[in-house]
Amino acid sequence: MIKKIALVILKNISYLSFLKKHYEKLNLCSGNQVIEGYVSLDYNFSADLIVNLNRGKLPFKSNSMSVVICTSAINYFTRSRGQEIINEVYRILKTGGVTRFSSQDLELIANKYVNKDTEFFFQKLSNGNERFEGKTMGDKFNSWFYGYKEHAGSCKYFYDFETLSDLFICAGFKSVEKKDYLDSRLDNIEMIDNRKNQMFFLEAIK
Asked: Within the chain, how many helices (H) and strands (E) appear?
């Protein structure tokens, strides 16, 4: 309860602070990621704008943004909510504006499981902990889908490029492309992309 009250207070403060500045680049579902020149939006204390993205519209005027990025987050929403969010991204982008989404790749991870890629599933982090929780490859495959103990909530929908691109096409984007890791129209892409061995990257132009 206290956390919810604090978030409501910070939400109002963050929005008033945002109104004093002018941003044209949005980091949507930013988590703890800070990128110079981007306003960050998420439902946590570290974001510039604290917004619950499980409902409602984005708090920006139509045709007000030149860039919107969303890294490894669209899979935390249902497919129908994902469509609503992407519709909102289309609304707030200027004509010719660019959006870049990345998502854990359903096709890639499924192939790794079918091909019994033990090197991938049993890899270790720099601190010595296993990257994927679980004892067996099946356990680790499930942890990739359903989340980890240290995170609140779990993923609600997984995409391959074809499925995610369909949401952008339905929203009205005129160009939707699959891009390689660090291949982008955007500046400072090295500050945006991550986990090239798990993700696919999509760029769309309004």
From this structure: 6, 7
What number of CA atoms fall less than 13 Å from residue 64's CA on the CB side? 11
Is the separation of the CB atoms in 140 and 132 below 8 Å? yes
Most confident residue range from 45-49, 87-91, 128-132: 87-91
* CA nearest to 27, candidates 89, 75, 118, 77: 89
Q: Give the sign of the dihedral formed by CA 190, CA 192, CA 196, CA 201.
A: negative
CA quadruple 138, 139, 141, 146: dihedral, nearest 10: 140
pTM over 0.70: yes
Residue 133 class from Cβ within 10 Å (0-12 exposed, 13-18 middle, 19+ buried)?
middle
Phi, psi at 79, each rounded to 5°: -60, -40
Q: Which residues pair with 70 in a beta bridge?
A: 28, 101
- DSSP conformation letters of 132-184: S-SSSHHHHHHHHHH--TTSSS-----B-HHHHHHHHHHHT-SEEEEE-TT--
Run of H or E including 17: helix 2-19
In the predicted model, what is the mean pLDDT of the chain? 88
- The answer on pLDDT for 149 being more than 70 is no
CA atoms of 82 and 156, how far apart (whole Å): 10
Instruction: Give me 87's structure tokens.
Output: 């519709």
